[in-house]
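dumping this here before i forget
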Amino acid sequence: MQYDSNDLTRRAMAAHFRAGNRDQPGNDSDVMEIEGRVYVVLRNINGILNVYRLTSQGKLRVLRRWPPEMKS
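structure:
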């Protein structure tokens, strides 16, 4: 799957703030691929803020539970 990690991170940050979250994601936010699925992990100094999964339609879906491979 082709994706632009900068674009996905920007879209995830926009969704994060649209949802009313006030915590500011830091520069260590990144895009990960686990078992063929693409995730955007928003982090700051306190740990993981939100995790979004890229759907097959190209949309980002916020996850309530994160894959165990993700460390805060």
